[in-house]
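Example 3.2
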Amino acid sequence: MHKTFLIVASVEAHIFGFHLPVLTYFQERGFEVHIATRFSKRLGFFESQGYICHDIPFSRSPFAFDNGAALRALTKLFRARRFDAIHTHTPAASFLCRWAAQRTRQPYVAYTAHGLHVYRGAPISHRLLYGTAERLAARWTDTLITMNREDTDWAKENLRLKKGGSTVYIPGVGIDLERYQMAGFDRAEFRKSLDVFEDAFILSFIGELNKNKNQLMLIEACERFKPSEPIRLLLVGEGPMEETYRRYVQERGLNNIHFLGFRDDIPKILAVSDVIVLTSKREGLPRCVMEGMAAGKPILGTNIRGTRDLVIDGENGFLVEVGDVGALTEKIRELYTNAPLRLQMGERNLKRIKDFALPKVMDALDKVYIDAGLFKTEEERGR
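Structure, written as tokens:
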């Protein structure tokens, strides 16, 4: 009989975007692989890969009524099937998953925290609500995986896991470095396809358009440049703040800001960019920053948890405080006027990102699963 592995997340996009290598890892080792999430567009894809799918009505909000139904669905699934290993992601789904797993005595549960909501500077309400939830659910957790130093320190100091459980630091979900090597790519032609002239200085922001990502801070910084200056901002992504941002740009006649929507050619966009920007209020370990580093670009980010793990201020990019539009504008101008500095920072990023590469992350996960006793023999481990 095959061993069974279940991965859990609130939405399918999270699994599709970050965890396909983990699914492949278990499938290649003979596990029957299951997915529990709220499916929308990619159910057919996952089933075509041989994964067994369970549609669970998760909501990303911990206050949504749907989560009651999600807990019941998970409990029913866990009573019907005993999994050899469960690995859960995203806060609301992970709390419900660990609760249901504890109620049904599932043997092993790992939880990856992609950014705890008790970060430094978090509202008191967040610390009380999410801190209490994390402390409670930790008692149902065998392995807690953190991906930035601040979360690791907080977890070790504040969380008590199941007997024999452990907190493990793993630097993110892993970046496939080869995907961002664009030798022979016609950058001039691609810039033209984006309606951006060849000599433009391109800032790219890749991420959902929402309040936490805080794109408005960057839009306001770009607003401070003269129309004659060749600064261009590419906003890559969709989200609940898109119409608000579009209206802001239109009302002010800002012709240097381009909304690209969802794109599946991120490596090309990175290749034609001069600087990658992230002005978030909160992150775990931002993938878009790692992608920018893998493309050899300098990073301009806010001084927050996660981004601080990747960017050393003045070395491979710059960090500014959240909301400091003046400082952000100043650093954009410094990078715009100093091509040798951009090149130097980009070269440092190509070296620094190697510590976050996919093979290193998968080796670290491999050790987690071995320590959990999922593989009894070397042959079973390396299959």
